[in-house]
Amino acid sequence: MTDHQEQPQQPYYPPRPPYEPGRAPYEPFTTEHGTTIWPSGGHGGHVPPPADPAPTATAAPVPGPRRRARRGVGLVAAVAIAAAAVGGGTATLVQRLAADPATTSASAPVAGTNVAAHGTGTVAGVAEAVSPSIVEISAASNSGKSTGSGVIVTADGEIVTNNHVISGASEITVRLDDGSTYPAEVVGTDPDKDLALIKLKGASGLKAASLGSSKDVKVGDEVVAIGSPEGLTGTVTSGIVSALDRDVTVAKDEDQGQGQERQQYDPRQGWPFEFGGQQFNGDTGSSKTTYKALQTDASLNPGNSGGALINMNGEIIGINSAMYAPSSSNGSTAGSVGLGFAIPIDTVKADLDGLRSGGDN
Fold first, then answer.
1. N or C: which end of the chain has fewer CB atoms below 10 A?
2. Do 151 and 319 meet the contact criterion of CB atoms below 8 Å apart?
3. For residues 40 and 48, is the Cβ–Cβ distance under 8 A?
């Protein structure tokens, strides 16, 4: 006897009823026999629901332009990594392109931007800011003519310089950075500190220099010197502070030793001073004074005396007053050897009131 096996019954799917208003055309519906029909997008097929349907989840979006954009960003980021091995500037540019657009607006700061050549902390920036406050001084006397420099300290024309620049002068002429000239008169002198204060006649609205502090100066600090060496107005040199508190001895009066930058002497000889028991650039004579000085390797030459030694913030930290200029037996020199000296600006500031009242003049 052969076993009779019943064939499984195929599920019955009655025809889909016509569209009924108020029901979405592709929503599931139940027939009169209790069978739920699941439409298949309007193409005639019926798919039953799963036995244990899981909670409905949001379907992942179909890849579109957004996915393609991300691939582009990844490509640019890879280029940025390669560019970093070539140059920092190129890598910075590519990284900006690869960044989120929300962070690359026109107003966003850019990291690594170079400081402008005329910005704070550069020699060019210091020169541009301070040069209008530095002057050239021509002082004529019976023994000749001297050329030095000076620093404007008030808008109405008060100028600090070295005593040896104007000592014994019968006529003083000052040339400003813009080329204009003024006559000047001596207000007060302090030969013991080799300082003098003169004032222009009829001047106003001048740019006064910013006086800093020399007590904070350290060996190795960068400095700029501005003056008129050999009559070359507005000459800028730079270097560092190479030593502090040097005991420098200079002549007090213009008739002692070689008057600094007097025309009857070889101007390449600089001005006489003593240091460590030795004399340099000529005899300082019997009337002399000693002061504590800043030492710098910024190039100083005849005509720089009375000019400014400046820090990288554009503040005056000293008044250039002496230098060593080597010479051979035939009178030629080997140029600057980086031994220049300046009166600390704190000494100058402490002496200003005394100079304004006439000083030792």
1. N
2. yes
3. no
Q: What is the CA radius of gyration of the chain?
A: 43
Q: Which of 214, 242, 305, 336 is catalytic?
A: 305
How far apart, in whole angstroms, are the C-alpha atoms of residue 135 and residue 21? Answer: 98
8 A C-beta contact, residue 194 and residue 254: no
Residues 303, 277 contacting (CB under 8 angstroms): no
Q: How far apart are the first and last CA of the chain?
A: 149
d(CA 338, CA 341): 10
Active site residue 194: yes
> In terms of Cα–Cα distance, which of 323, 313, 357 is closest to 343?
323
Considering 133, 149, 190, 194, which one is annotated as catalytic? 194
The answer to whether residues 192 and 360 touch, using CB atoms and an 8 Å cutoff, is: yes
Per the annotation, the verdict on 305 as an active-site residue is: yes
Options 131, 141, 164, 167, the catalytic residue: 164
Closest CA to 244 of 313, 347, 123: 347
Q: 311-352: per-residue pLDDT in tens? A: 999 999 999 998 887 654 444 454 557 889 999 999 999 999
Q: Three-state SS for 254?
A: coil
The structure's pTM equals 0.62
In sequence order, which ranges of the chain are alpha helices (DSSP H)?
65-84, 88-98, 123-130, 163-166, 345-356
Q: For residues 212 and 222, give the distance between their C-alpha atoms in angstroms, rounded to a whole number.
A: 14
d(CA 146, CA 137): 8
Cross-strand partners of 125: none
Cα separation, 347 vs 361, whole angstroms: 18
Q: How far apart are CA 74 and CA 69, in angstroms?
A: 9
Q: Which residues fall within 8 angstroms of residue 192, CB to CB, at 6 or more apart?
A: 252, 289, 291, 360
Report yes or no: 342 and 296 within 8 Å, Cβ to Cβ.
yes
How far is Cα 127 from Cα 235, in angstroms, rounded to an integer? 9
Q: How far apart are CA 322 and CA 147, in angstroms?
A: 14
